[in-house]
What does this fold into?
Amino acid sequence: MKTPSVPKQTSQTIRNLINISVVVVAVVGAACAAAQGKDEPIQPIVPVKITNPAKVELGKKLFFDPRLSKSGFISCNSCHNLSMGGSDNLPTSIGDRWQQGPINSPTVLNSSLNFVQFWDGRAKDLQEQAGGPIANPKEMAFSHDLALEVLNSIPQYRAEFEKVYGNKELDIQLVTDAIAEFEKTLKTPNSRFDQWLKGSKKAITAEELKGYELFKNSGCVSCHNGEAVGGNSYQKMGVFEPYKTNNPALGRAEVSKQDADRFNFKVPTLRNVELTYPYFHDGAAKTLEEAVDIMGRLQLAKKFTPEETASIVAFLKTLTGEQPKLQLPILPPSQNNTPQPKPFD
It folds into this structure.
């Protein structure tokens, strides 16, 4: 029997309906994928948008310039090494004349997402934080006046500041503003976990997903949540058991002068946490496994089994994002009148 022919107009209508169906399926699929991560306590990192590249470039030079220290050897990158997860992988940092720093150096990566800066929150933003280490006698051991004298003695720096700020007179606010602007670009989006949040179910393994469920259901997300997976609250270190340490840092109490704030610290971000060992404000936990075990017992009154710990650690490693891709700056040369470094005084 002869198959009846389909009118040309009807055939086109069918093709249009098929195309519409494909579009609808794609839209619904995208919506479902977006919904997968919408209600999660952790949200994907939003990539940075650079609006003033000249200011960022100036801030990058200042971030890497060791001449802002008394020794002429220590730069911002010394303690926040961008080749090492934005930290220095030491329990506490090494400062001027090999002095032991008072506290673990937090990562500079994604630091713009913190609600305050420093473990004790004494700086309200990145600009205020940037000025601290320069004048700290245990860190860069310089003064703001001497740092400005160095920069003012270098014509190339003066020209760059004038280009960016329209101001021939340098002051410490412009210096710290430029450094902060560079640090704002140091975000690490597109981790495997972010890909999973956006709907790519194969971005993480079953073991890593199991670790995330444990991380959520055990209560870790009550402190480690949001885009930075932390960095948005103060919490007491040692809720169910006291935390024992030889480190003298008292946390928020050193700023508030309130005894109730003893051992209250800004919750650290867990982004790129596999890169930022050792852990805690005193750097006492050498491994992620050790950190997870201590946090479980002290903060949640929960003793994780070795298998549970391994699953949580597997999840934490999915938080490593794309590291900043940058070209090292060529710093402008010192002049005859540039103050000389004093590395051994």
User: Anything to note?
Assistant: The longest strand covers residues 234-236. The beta strands are 234-236, 264-266.
